[in-house]
């Protein structure tokens, strides 16, 4: 008789965004005339810009010709893309990352869920609280998180680092020493970030304590302040303690075409074993490469035209962030984020719970956001709005919220 992976039974409820989608679908069914504005899931709304579309068209035509057709992509990604990444994302920022340290994938979500596989089950993870749910849930599935306490909404074997208005959303070094530290900067969901000096302290901490940092930099394109690092490898010593995850979803609008990459430096060694080799082995066994067509689009992101076009798109979303941020402030809300990230994090009014505010906003303003408590217990009493909607919808949503 087969047995299932019981760890899945430990997962409370369904995935946050599936939960929200179900709630919104039910509301929409009951209120078919409601003009719902969706500022919940951080999904882009602007079309992929012309340089990338052109590259995809060209690649599609290559696939139609026997002379240029491509089958399986190289496990780690095509060199044309990895070279562009090494040059433009790293060398240009003074980071010495070799293409053999870059692993192209179908997105940062998969990588952030999969990366835990190369670590032993008895590692202790530390996460910011609130946190992007994938880091915790993927460790639950792997049986690494212990027992869930319904009341505190915490796992017995997870170290939580609260990030709230009280500590300016800066995680403090935990009392217990973690083995694996997840950092997402600029942060999803709070939209806040750390300065490069603050990040350096985490790198020093990890090196000193023999911990590894899983650094999710999916939102780096949204950084507007000079004292914020775009890559953790801008910090001294990061190459011995940090794995960096990157995404093309948020900078180039690839949420629907899927492309990302992970950097595993060769200097990271655990008892002499190279994590780079382990990840290469894992990649080779479980992954057959991101599609050629999409990798060509990824390459186009680094062209002059691509860079100019994605900059404009990021600017468009950041203008929405400003509209939402200032609109909420004007309406008397306590608001955070939105300066180096496309997320605006607000304190719910009159101490409403995050889910009560979700229902209130959906019913009274027909605006969908994301309840802060869905990201962890310290998210309770907070709420997230995304800047990834259209400008018109961002303005309309704020008009409705102001009128409540
Ligand atoms: C979010 O809304 O937090 C993101 O869209 C999730 C993701 O990137 O997977």
Question: Which geometry do the CA atoms define?
Answer: globular
Radius of gyration: 21 Å
Bound molecules: D-malate
Q: Number of helix segments? A: 12
Q: From the helix content, strand content and strand pairing, which structural class follows?
A: alpha/beta
Widest β-sheet, arrangement of strands: 2-10-9-8-7-3-6
The helicity comes to 25-40%
Number of strands: 17
Largest sheet: 7 strands, mixed
Mean pLDDT: 97
* Strand content bin: 15-25%
N-to-C terminal Cα separation, in Å?
57 Å
Taken in chain order, the helices and strands follow as HEHHEHEHEEEEHEEHEEEHHHEEHEEEH
Low-pLDDT segments, ≥5 res: none
Account of the 3D structure:
With 404 residues, the protein is of the alpha/beta class. Helices cover 37% and strands 15% of the residues. Helix 10 packs parallel to helix 12. The longest helix is centred in the last third of the chain and has 27 residues, at 304-330. The chain is globular. The N and C termini lie far apart (57 Å). The structure holds D-malate. D-malate binds next to loops.
Short description:
The chain is α/β, with parallel strands linked by helices. It has helices spanning 16-30, 50-63, 79-90, 108-114, 133-141, 196-209, 249-252, 275-286, 292-301, 304-330, 354-365, 391-402; strands at 37-38, 102-105, 125-129, 148-149, 154-155, 158-162, 180-184, 212-216, 242-247, 260-263, 269-270, 273-274, 335-337, 343-347, 367-368, 370-371, 382-386. The strands form five sheets. The protein has a seven-stranded mixed β-sheet, with helices on both faces.
């Amino acid at each position: 008789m087969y047995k299932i992976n019981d760890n899945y039974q430990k997962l409370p409820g369904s995935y946050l965004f599936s939960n929200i989608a179900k709630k919104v679908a039910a509301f929409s069914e009951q209120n078919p005339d409601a003009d719902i504005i969706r500022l919940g899931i951080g999904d882009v709304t602007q079309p992929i810009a012309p340089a990338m579309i052109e590259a995809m068209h060209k690649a599609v035509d290559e696939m139609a010709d026997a002379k240029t057709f491509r089958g399986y992509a190289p496990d780690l990604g095509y060199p044309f893309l990895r070279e562009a990444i090494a040059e433009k994302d790293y060398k240009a920022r003074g980071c010495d990352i070799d293409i053999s340290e870059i692993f192209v994938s179908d997105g940062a979500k998969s990588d952030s869920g999969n990366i835990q596989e190369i670590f032993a089950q008895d590692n202790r993870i530390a996460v910011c609280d609130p946190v992007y749910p994938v880091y915790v849930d993927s460790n639950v599935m792997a049986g690494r998180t212990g027992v869930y306490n319904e009341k505190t909404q915490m796992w017995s074997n997870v170290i939580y680092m609260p990030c709230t208005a009280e500590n300016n959303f800066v995680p403090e070094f935990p009392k217990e020493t973690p083995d694996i530290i997840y950092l997402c900067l600029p942060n999803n969901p709070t939209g806040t970030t750390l300065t490069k000096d603050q990040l350096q302290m985490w790198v020093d901490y990890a090196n000193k304590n023999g911990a590894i940092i899983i650094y999710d930099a999916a939102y780096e394109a949204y950084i507007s302040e000079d004292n914020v690092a775009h890559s953790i490898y801008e910090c001294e010593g990061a190459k011995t303690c940090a794995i960096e995850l990157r995404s093309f979803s948020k900078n180039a609008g690839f949420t629907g075409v899927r492309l990302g990459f992970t950097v595993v430096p060769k200097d990271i060694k655990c008892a002499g074993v190279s994590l780079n080799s382990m990840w290469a082995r894992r990649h080779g066994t479980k992954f057959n490469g991101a599609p050629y067509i999409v990798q060509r689009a990824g390459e186009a992101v680094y062209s002059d035209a691509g860079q100019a076009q994605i900059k404009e798109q990021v600017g468009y979303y950041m203008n929405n962030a400003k509209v939402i941020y200032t609109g909420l402030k004007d309406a008397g809300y306590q608001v955070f984020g939105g300066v180096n990230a496309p997320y605006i994090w607000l304190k719910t009014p009159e101490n409403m719970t995050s889910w009560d505010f979700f229902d209130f906003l959906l019913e009274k303003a027909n605006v969908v956001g994301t309840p802060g408590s869905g990201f962890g217990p310290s998210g309770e009493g907070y709420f997230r709005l995304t800047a990834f909607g259209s400008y018109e919808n961002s303005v309309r949503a704020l008009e409705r919220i102001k009128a409540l």
